[in-house]
């Protein structure tokens, strides 16, 4: 998965325009990335990539770049 594909996936997951989603996008700028959105993200990462987020991962995600780093760390090139 390229970084562009990952950004497309994140935009689709949170139902945001793709042009709004960049690595620098803060999670607070994405209304759907709230507590329910975190659960949705966790389920989607498990289903699509077989990635289980730790509590530390969840607490550490402040920007889209943090999510991209989790994908990279789990062997999903971005």
Shape call? globular
- The tally of domains stands at 1
Helicity range of the residues?
40-55%
CATH architecture: Orthogonal Bundle
- Please tally the helical runs, counting DSSP H or I stretches of 4 or more residues: 4
Question: What is this entry, summarized?
Answer:
By secondary structure, the chain is mainly α. It has one domain: Non-ribosomal Peptide Synthetase Peptidyl Carrier Protein, Chain A (Orthogonal Bundle), CATH 1.10.1200. It is built from four helices and no strands.
Explain this structure to me?
The chain is an all-alpha fold and 78 residues long. The protein has a single domain (3-73), classed as Non-ribosomal Peptide Synthetase Peptidyl Carrier Protein, Chain A, CATH 1.10.1200. Helices cover 54% and strands 0% of the residues. It has helices at residues 3-13, 35-49, 55-60, 64-73. The longest helix has 15 residues, at 35-49. The chain is globular and about 25 Å long. The model has no long low-confidence stretch (mean pLDDT 94).
